[in-house]
Design a protein that fits this description.
- The chain is of the alpha/beta class and 431 residues long.
- Helix content is 42%, strand content 14%.
- The strands form 2 sheets. It has an 8-stranded mixed β-sheet with strand order 9-8-7-10-11-14-13-12, sandwiched between helices. A 7-stranded parallel β-sheet has the order 3-2-1-4-5-6-15, sandwiched between helices.
- The longest helix is centred in the middle third of the chain and has 24 residues.
- The protein starts with 25 loop residues before the first helix and ends in a 5-residue tail after the last helix.
- The N terminus is likely disordered.
Length: 431
């Protein structure tokens, strides 16, 4: 499975050079990329198609997703399809400097540095957009935000783009309502191949892998509080229960709360849960889920982390202000000592824990998510003449194609409807 080396084209707008930490880190990053490519068979099948058809020939694609090995593979696949790819991260703590170095060495212009400030992070996004992209892949809406503001002049060639996250799609739909959407966008997160598989099973595994690796603590026997019972929350709660935790779910939606109850979880408000939780995981996509009144009643040694896209679910700024002192207890763990001597432990500075403290979703999961991205970009390029400036649903044909790729790769087969069954299901006759 050879890795593509494609550095034949340079943007017609201007020469743009990669911005990475250290090119000498590339061998380590290359190993990571080669490893995940072996476990992403659906994307490999799409890569073969793209290499023959060249659907992105002459197009520039800006990609802002967590800059690690699976994302690098997506960039390489798009390049095999003829695209001129410009790759950046969507969170400064999830960027892996060795992967950034490797993918830059392989011919993808890359703009990513781990641990940069908010201003430096935005500058890296702006450098990426300076290619004047035709297509974009966004994760949380940062590219769209810049293309509507600071980087408006770089939007002159835009055909459309894809959004990876629940939070990002909420914002896109709000922009659409307000007439502030700069280009057509595909709601990739709403695809079956994404939210059924990635949000539930990917988040469920990767969150707990990151928590356990970072803390070296047991999950069994602990009281785990999961804030939010959407697809990501369902996966997080399910895996915690499977490892022997007593799981509490907090929610604002009565039916999601009822669903959590039916699955055997306790349901209560965060005000109640704050007093008894050992580990807290926020997965809501909203802000101020855990705030000072909750810190005031938490147990000594409570562990707090966030699995939502943005770092606003736990009010870390207020925690810093009210804490008597703070110190790094372990890598990626800061302990905040309260006035009464209790210590509250925050993982990954309240950022997306599975990437700030871990390797993100497993390769097999991102195989499906990035297959949706790749085929959705292809769909946008094919339909560019008829697109309206709105948020589009991923066509069922794309979802189904990916599902069959994945089943085939796993050696699985399923039944198919007969013509008579299809007629029965589509009609009203009872015969």
């Amino acid at each position: 499975m050879d890795i593509v080396n494609n550095k034949e084209t340079v943007s017609e707008k201007e020469e743009i050079m990669s911005h990475i930490k250290d090119a000498s880190l590339a061998p380590s990053g290359r190993k990571k990329i080669e490893w995940v490519r072996r476990f992403m068979p659906a994307l490999t099948e799409i890569e073969r198609r793209f290499e023959k058809e060249q659907p992105f020939k002459g197009l520039r694609i800006a990609v802002s997703v967590h800059l690690e090995a699976k994302t690098a593979n997506l960039g390489l696949v798009l390049a095999k399809g003829g695209a001129e790819v410009y790759l950046t991260g969507c969170n400064p703590l999830s960027t892996q400097d060795d992967v950034a170095a490797a993918v830059a060495e392989m011919g993808i212009e890359t703009f990513g540095l781990h641990g940069v400030s908010a201003k430096e992070y935005e500058d890296l996004l702006a450098e990426t957009l300076a290619c004047h992209p035709h297509l974009i892949v966004d994760d949380g809406g940062d590219l769209i935000n810049l293309l509507n503001g600071r980087c408006k002049e770089y939007a002159d060639c835009l055909i459309g783009g894809c959004e990876e996250t629940t939070t990002g799609i909420h914002r896109l739909k709000a922009r659409e309502r307000d007439g502030a959407l700069p280009c057509p966008m595909m709601a990739v997160n709403d695809a079956k191949a994404k939210h059924y598989y990635d949000n539930k099973y990917g988040t469920g595994q990767s969150v707990w892998t990151a928590i356990m690796d970072t803390t070296n603590l047991m999950v069994a026997g602990k009281t785990v509080v999961v804030a939010g019972y959407g697809w990501c929350g369902q996966g997080t709660a399910m895996r915690a229960k499977g490892m022997g935790a007593d799981v509490i779910v907090t929610e604002i939606d009565p039916f999601k709360a009822l669903a959590a109850t039916m699955e055997g979880f306790r349901v209560m408000t965060m005000d109640e849960a704050a007093k008894i939780g050992d580990i807290f995981v926020t997965v809501t996509g909203c802000k101020d889920v855990i705030v000072p009144r909750h810190f005031a009643v938490m147990k000594d040694n409570a562990v707090l982390c966030n699995a939502g896209h943005f770092d606003c679910e736990i009010d870390i700024a207020s925690l810093r202000e009210i804490a008597k002192s703070s110190r790094e207890c372990r890598n990626n763990i800061v302990g905040y000592e309260m006035s009464d001597g209790r210590i509250l432990h925050v993982l990954g500075d309240g950022r997306l824990v599975n990437l700030a403290c871990g390797m993100g979703h497993p390769a097999e999961i991102m195989d499906m998510s990035f297959s949706v991205q790749a085929l959705s970009l292809h769909w946008l390029a094919e339909h560019k003449e008829e697109l309206e400036t709105k948020v589009y649903k991923v066509p069922d044909s794309i979802d189904d194609e990916i599902g069959y790729y994945k089943l085939g790769a796993m050696g699985l087969s399923i039944d198919k409807l007969t013509p008579e069954q299809e007629e029965y299901l589509s009609g009203w006759s009872v015969e």
